[in-house]
Amino acid sequence: MGSHSAAVQPSSAAFSAPGFATRAYRADIAAGARSSASDSGWVSLACQLELAAELAEPQATTHLRRAEVLAGEIAEPNALARVVLEWQTAPPGALEAIVAVADQAELSHAFRLAAHVLDSLAAANRSLTALERGRIVARRARIAHKLGEVEQALDRYMQLLRFGRDEQIPELEARGWAGRAILAQVRGNYPEVRRCARRAARLADKNGLIKISRDAHHSLMIAAAMAGEFDDALAHGWHLYNTSLGDATNQADALLNVAQLLLDSGHAAEARAGFAAVVSRPVPARIMLPALGGLAMANAALGEERVVFWVASEVARIEEAGASSFAVASARLECAMAFVGLHRPAPAAQQARAALRLARAGGFHEVAYKAESLDVSMPVGAPARGPLGPRGAAVALNVEQLEPGPMPVHVAVEFSSSEV
Amino acid sequence: MSGARASQAVTTGPSAAANVLVAGLDRYQLASIAGAFRNCGAIRTVQSFEDLRRSLRESSNTVEIVVLAARDQYGESARRTIRELAQERPRAAIVVYCHIGWQRDTDVRTLAVNGAHQFIFAGMNDDIIAVRAVVESAKRQCAAECVMQLLAPVVPATLHPMLEAALARPDGITELSALAASLGVHRKTLFNICKRAGFLGPAELLAWVRLMLVGYLLETTGCTVERIAIDLSYPSPTALRNAFRRYIGLRASQVRACGGARAVLEALCRRMRSCRQIH
User: By three-state DSSP, how is residue B118 classified?
Assistant: First the structure.
């Protein structure tokens, strides 16, 4: 049987904390990390963990405990709740608090500091279980990926996978496979994405690992969509929607993906229902804006001009409220394309100019290119309605039934920090 | 306050040129530092950051460690002083001693961004053992940063994490397996990264990084080769001397006389040029 609850004793070099907290933080700031008052707490925690990792017992444990108290004071409740939800542990302990702080640093793009906190934690806490240590390795792999250290990330996911298999800890093996799927997606190797994500999904679904299951099915959805296998993609997307019940934001995100798949496969009416269902809920701007853009495209395919004008005005309102300029630029571009589809060149040009302005200012080259090359006088037809198999058809029917009543006067946007 | 009274030498060890400078600490903090440095050298104390800056301008003596409060008795933040120290005395390790209640009113992040290496937090890590460890870590970090500053322009950026890891734990990372483990990668990945960068192999790179650090320590401290070999976990002082001969063609005393780390860097550059000629 795997030593699920046994302490793991790594060699000292394997878990020595590389680097220094203040140096890591300076490098993050130099690389453009968003700085805020919270950073002081993170740096302090990182320094304290670094010290605990340096010292011998019993001082090491004394200082680790003090770091844990500090983490409990500075961890944001939302960040802590996300760790608890992901790990399916309750109530949260000191480990979850420290990891939550690392997540907060990661969200602010202080990747090196986040990595330092995790490495120091692994080095300082000699009583971590194999599962806990593996979960830290998984986060480290994700951060390595975000730092552009793809090979290092892959190595960590491979370690996780082998360790999980050897110790018979399904969660760690599943995390390893899911991580490999994500890296394969970055490289555009979709057969590899499917191979790894299937294994992750199988392990995760069998063992009730909700977050890992969602990540795996998300990868499978993307891989199927890239292969034009919409039936399969819709089935995975709908699985994501169903497993997000109770989590409004993730559910909206899943529905957005399903609606986009329906639009891409030529099912504009069903897509419109899905996008409308998303925009009629209070959701973060990162979900609202693509949903509005999709709603415009779907309505244009159905010849519904009024809604497209409404979407354009809502996007402008959200832009003024300070949403991410990339999301706004993308939504503006979709509005432009929708107006082109409706043979309305003047508003199309206006939206395209707005998209181009934002894209040039933000360095969003793909959006800029598309906005610049959009011919407002030459409508491009909507995707042809392709046949769906039984699974895809069932999803389309379910989504159609979600269509809400009349659109609100204004959409409700949540301007909160995005999730890890 | 006169210059003579403002600057006090608190001698806790053998009479020697002060290489530890403390500024703006209260009595409790001073006692903590004095306890940690007992029998380890003289501590020079100044009251304010203005006095500290003046003291450093007026003296060219080496200062190995500066411990300063986050705010001096006149309410001045250490931020500016740290920034100036980091620029004008890059070889001084900077430790900030944060007072009780630091969580409420100390801008740790700004002090870190301006150049503080390590922090002592009152009530958290200000016991003697911890203070010693924090100061040692600050010295190690300062040395690592100085060496990285020399290496960064000549070593490809993709290899910098390897250099940083080796310099952060020179006592523990003495061979490739340890380096790979500290970075969480397979040994083979180190070879792949070096090959893609078109640079020296990882074992040789590690040897050079360690010799750079040795060169820095020879130049900036009075430590003997024997002491450095023990501290950096070389198999023996002879092994270190042999490494100097093999990689640099100089004796340790010659390296010390020829600029320490810079002498090693010049040898590394010659090695890189000869590699490029061969290929």
Answer: strand
Residue A50 touches chain B, beta carbons under 8 Å: yes
Q: Do A22 and B141 touch (CB under 8 A)?
A: yes
How close B189 gets to chain A, by Cα (Å)? 7
Contact (CB<8Å) A155/B184: yes
CB of A57 within 8 Å of a chain B CB? The answer is: no
Q: Do A20 and B168 touch (CB under 8 A)?
A: yes
- CA max distance for chain B: 66
Whether A419 shows a pLDDT value over 50: the answer reads no
Q: pTM to 2 decimals?
A: 0.85
β B43-46/B20-23 pair status: parallel
Exposure of A80 in the CB half-sphere (CA atoms within 13 A): 16
Q: Strands B43-46, B7-10: parallel, antiparallel or unpaired by DSSP?
A: antiparallel
pLDDT for A114-153, tens place per residue? 999 999 999 999 999 999 999 999 999 999 999 989 999 9
Q: Is B106's CB within 8 Å of A40's CB?
A: yes
Q: Which of A16, A37, A66 sits opposite B169 (nearest CB)?
A: A16
What is the rounded distance in angstroms from the CA atom of residue A174 to the CA atom of residue A189?
19
Predicted pLDDT at A381: 76
What does chain A come to in residues? 420
Residues with Cβ < 8 Å from A302, sequence gap 6 or more? A268, A269, A272
Q: Over the stretch A357-382, which tens digit does the pLDDT of each residue have?
A: 999 999 899 999 999 999 998 877 77
Strand partners, B9: B44
Q: Which residues contact B181 (CB under 8 A, 6 or more apart)?
A: A11, A13, A14, A15
Tokens linked to B230: 């023990």
Best B109, B136, B149, B209 member to test A by mutation, with max A CBs in 10 Å, is B109
**How close, in Å, is residue A61 to chain B by CA atoms?**
12
Contacts of residue A306, Cβ cutoff 8 Å, sequence gap at least 6? none
Q: Is-contact B201 B162, C-beta < 8 A?
A: no
Mark yes or no for CB contact A51/B109 under 8 Å: no
**A26 and B129: CB-CB below 8 Å?**
no
pLDDT of residue A14 exceeding 70: no
CB B220 within 8 Å of CB B261? no
Separation in Å, CA A186 to CA A68, A193, A222, A225, A286? 36, 9, 11, 15, 21
Task: Tally the C-alpha atoms within 13 A of residue B178's C-alpha that lie toward its C-beta.
Answer: 20
Which of B97, B102, B107, B108 is the best mutation test for A, with the most CBs of A within 10 A? B108
Q: CA A145 → CA A137, A238, B120, distances in Å? A: 12, 28, 33
* DSSP designation for A390: H
Contact A13 B181 (CB under 8 A): yes
Mean pLDDT, chain B, whole residue set: 89
Whether residue B88 has pLDDT greater than 70:
yes
